[in-house]
Structures are given as structure tokens and as C-alpha cells.
Amino acid sequence: MPVEVKLPIKEIDLQKTTDILTEALGDITKGLSEALSRNDFTFVIRNNTEWKLKRTGAVNDSSSWPFEDIEPKMIDIKLMSAKSFSFAAKYALPHREIVIGASYPLIGYKKIAMEWSADAKKTWDNMDDGMDKSADSNRAYITEAKGKLIWIFEING
After folding, report:
1. Residue 93 · residue 136 · CB < 8 Å
2. CA 133 to each of CA 24, 28, 78, 86, 116: distance values in angstroms, whole numbers, following the listed order
3. Cβ atoms 76, 4 nearer than 8 A
4. Quick one: which of 2, 6, 74, 85 could link to 63 by a disulfide (CB 3.0–4.6 Å)?
């Protein structure tokens, strides 16, 4: 079962999201730190916008997309222990929809996806590598901390 953490966004340069995550996790109770060390994967959605990201769809190939709606100006973190996963979700902003996805298959490579799209399945189908992705000023990337992989999605509008 995923563990959830929600944190208010601090006024810091977007390029320092990894530093923000490390700093924020340092402020959370010791019990959460222990939970983090027991989980294989971490997922972070940073909603830098003034709008709620309304989840309007998902593709759950293996495991289930762990996030629902994301409140404005919040960082939502999910921790998941799994052998593999592959999923994507579509979120509505006032002006269009964005699809984000992540995959760590039993056979193959870690992957990440982000694009303006109304079709989560198409974005999931096209997900092919772990390189940084962007949709205008939005960014998705995979990083690592203490030997654990972290999928980070920054939504800026």
C-alpha cells in the first residue's frame, strides 16, 4: 500500500526540486524516513500552479497510478514497494490536459513520460526511455537518492 505525503511548496528555484524534496523529507518525522527506506520507488508531483490538477483518466498496465487530484501549490509524494510498475494518468488544467507516466518493467528500462495530450493510453504507449521530458515549462525526470529511484513531475501550467 503506498504511503502519502503532502507538502506546501516553498519559494525556491524549480531546478532545485531534488534539494526541496531532500529538505522537506528532513523536516518530516523519523517514522516517514524509515518508511522511505523500506520502499523501492518514490513518485513526486509538484503542482506549482494556482489550479487543482484534476485527474481525468489513467492507464494501469501493471500496478495502479498512485495519485488522485493534486491541490494547488502542493508537493504530493507517494512511496511504493513493487517489483515492477507501468502506468500513466491524465490531469486537467483550465486550458488543456497533461499526461504523465512512469514505468519500471520486469524486462526493459525505467521510463518516464510527459506531454500535453487528451489520450493517456497514447502517451503510455509512446513512453520509451528515462530521459528528461517536458511540455512547455513542465518537466518530468528520474533521479536517485540513497540508492532509490525517484520519478519527479513538475507542473508549472
Report:
1. no
2. 24, 29, 20, 17, 11
3. yes
4. 85
